[in-house]
Design brief:
With about 160 residues, this protein is an all-alpha fold. Helices cover about 75% and strands about 0% of the residues. The protein has five helices and no strands. Helix 2 packs antiparallel against helix 5. The longest helix has 28 residues. The chain starts with a helix and ends in a 16-residue tail after the last helix.
Length: about 160
């Protein structure tokens, strides 16, 4: 039941993501999403599950929202500029890479968590995993906010000599 809070806020973020992408643009929405996710990871580092469940649920609520925004914004970013006839293929590649990253991340996190800690709960390992995830999310915020050129979509006209 505690973990279902993540799913609920993930779904709510999905409803809000489209409006945010239209209002802020993809990069700023993604930066916001990664910032919220970083806060959630830090909250997970600070939460002590054996003492109280409320901080864990709070972190899951925040994390679900941030990751829900990131999920939708990254899908929009990956399909931006893709011709309509290639959208199915592009979407399939995005979903495959997303699942590959998710399964790799779960495997690594489980390995680290199981190998750490003397409390029998793997809390020390989970804190290490969440700390690294927070650092990665902060770097992602910075990357999203770096101004850059937008990739050209479609063929470019040739210069005449």
């Amino acid at each position: 039941l505690a973990f279902s809070t993540f799913s609920v806020t993930f779904a709510v973020a999905g409803l809000a993501a489209g409006r945010l992408v239209r209002a802020l643009g993809i990069r700023h929405t993604m930066a916001l999403a990664m910032g919220v996710a970083a806060v959630a990871f830090v909250l997970q580092v600070l939460a002590v599950p054996r003492d109280a469940l409320a901080p864990v649920i709070g972190a899951l609520l925040v994390g679900g929202f941030g990751q829900g925004l990131a999920f939708d914004a990254s899908t929009s970013a990956s399909l931006d500029g893709v011709p309509d006839d290639a959208a199915g293929e592009a979407s399939g590649v995005v979903q495959t890479l997303r699942l590959l990253g998710l399964s790799t991340g779960v495997a690594l996190a489980t390995t680290v968590t199981a190998g750490q800690g003397t409390d029998g709960l793997g809390v020390d390992g989970m804190r290490a995993v969440m700390g690294v995830a927070a650092a990665v999310a902060v770097v992602a915020v910075a990357v999203c906010l770096v101004p850059g050129r937008r990739a050209a979509t479609g063929p470019q006209p040739r210069a005449h000599r």
